[in-house]
Design brief:
By secondary structure, the chain is an alpha/beta fold. Helix content is about 35%, strand content about 15%.
Length: about 210
């Protein structure tokens, strides 16, 4: 360049965040392919990152089971958005070795299985709005359905706290084992009909569909 000519940049341009989305999306995760997934939390994360023009790297559970491949993928990321379903005894150690911030999502309770931030939904606002209409104190009985999985425990805790604001406590908690698939759902429905007492004025609350 010539002396005393040209433009000098005093501040470096803001780098584009490189985010690894560790989740199952059921379809290839590319910028030009729309994502259709039953699991809406990973889909929402994916679409939000696209809107903010982040450099997105999709990391699947299969890749986590191959440590060398996963480390190469990690090296391209500044941080990870981690679906709680990808954490198990096989992947926990590898995820702990990641050298950047990790945020876990899609859980209804504090898992505390990794030293990372966790995003937990707060159901109290929605429950307060629902109970304002339902008026739980006007019902003769309050029955909770417990499907027995960890997320349901977190949701039922929110239900109990919301009921307490109305001076109510559940009269009974009924455990119905939840199984996946159409046949499992029908089995749970038949069990529900057989064990839940029929009462026109009973309030029955289930934390899972």
């Amino acid at each position: 360049r010539r002396p005393r000519s040209g433009t000098f940049v005093k501040t470096a341009p803001t780098p584009i965040p490189r985010i690894g989305l560790v989740a199952e999306l059921n379809e290839p995760c590319t910028i030009n392919v729309p994502v259709r997934s039953f699991n809406f939390a990973p889909k929402s994360c994916y679409e939000l990152l696209r809107q903010h023009e982040c450099e997105l790297h999709h990391i699947s559970y299969r890749e986590l089971r191959e440590p060398e491949l996963a480390r190469r993928r990690f090296a391209k990321c500044d941080g990870l958005l981690l679906n709680c379903g990808e954490v198990d005894s096989y992947t926990r150690g590898l995820l702990r070795s990641f050298n950047g911030p990790v945020v876990m999502f899609d859980n209804d309770f504090m898992q505390n299985s990794l030293d990372c931030s966790e995003v937990i939904p707060d159901f109290l606002c929605g429950l307060r709005e629902a109970f304002k209409r339902i008026q739980p104190q006007r019902h003769s009985r309050i029955i909770l359905i417990d499907p027995g999985h960890p997320n349901s425990a977190g949701r039922l805790d929110s239900v109990r706290r919301a009921l307490a604001e109305y001076g109510c406590t559940p009269d009974e908690t009924i455990r119905i084992k939840l199984m996946h698939g159409d046949s499992g759902q029908m089995s749970a429905y038949r069990e529900f009909l057989s064990v839940v007492p029929r009462s026109r004025n009973a309030l029955i609350i289930s934390p899972s569909d």
